[in-house]
Amino acid sequence: MIDLAPGLAYTVTETVSPSNVAATIGSGLLEVYATPAMVALMERAAMLAVQPLLPHGVGTVGTAINVEHTRATPIGAQVQAQAVLVAADARRLEFEVLASDAKGPIGRGTHVRYIIDNDRFMNKVLDR
After folding, report:
1. What is the pLDDT of residues 40-51, one digit of tens each?
2. In this structure, are residues 10 and 42 in contact, taking their beta carbons and an 8 Å threshold?
């Protein structure tokens, strides 16, 4: 059994660029950091919080996310997302996620991931 203790945290950063704004991604018409990009950054932080502690061949998959995107961020700004593990129950992992730029929080919420055996998971996917 894998023992992951609540409190594990990880932060990732990216720069807002033309490739991750709402107008490019298709989630809006403006040249501001896209909500789907923020969600992906939050998921990446959660995945990286636990991945180094998992055995070879074991990973996690995201199954639920509930976030609010509360402030717009322009091209050129840095965005960071932090994920903190708040609950671990067998294979289910729950995180609090927060995204910020230099002026403060831009989004927050919760994210659920499940621990999986990578090969077994992919075999099931390919059998669908």
Report:
1. 999 999 999 999
2. no
